[in-house]
Write a structure and sequence with these properties.
By secondary structure, the chain is mainly alpha-helical. The chain has a domain of 47 residues. Helices cover 44% and strands 10% of the residues. It has a two-stranded antiparallel sheet. Helix 2 crosses helix 3. The longest helix is centred in the first third of the chain and has 13 residues. It is globular and about 25 Å long. The mean pLDDT is 87.
């Protein structure tokens, strides 16, 4: 079941879309998300995991090397 993203998540997603492919060096990081959303580290971790689970973002890498990008796969392909 899909649900609406919260205000922090929406703000970060819009920023990613506005910056384009090369706006964030190799993708959005948790530190970037914290700066954009003004969230704590724990909240940022939950928000990013939720956005991946909701298929709004795709994640590459692990731990401190994790990077996030907008998931732009057409819905009919999923």
């Amino acid at each position: 079941m899909r649900r609406q993203l919260n205000e922090r998540q929406q703000r970060a997603l819009l920023r990613l879309l506005r910056e384009g492919s090369y706006g964030f060096d190799l993708g959005l990081t948790a530190a970037n998300y914290i700066a954009i959303s003004k969230a704590s580290a724990a909240t940022a971790t939950r928000d990013l995991a939720d956005m991946v689970a909701e298929a709004a973002l795709v994640r590459t890498g692990e731990r401190r090397y994790a990077r996030y990008a907008v998931n732009i796969v057409p819905r009919h392909i999923r």
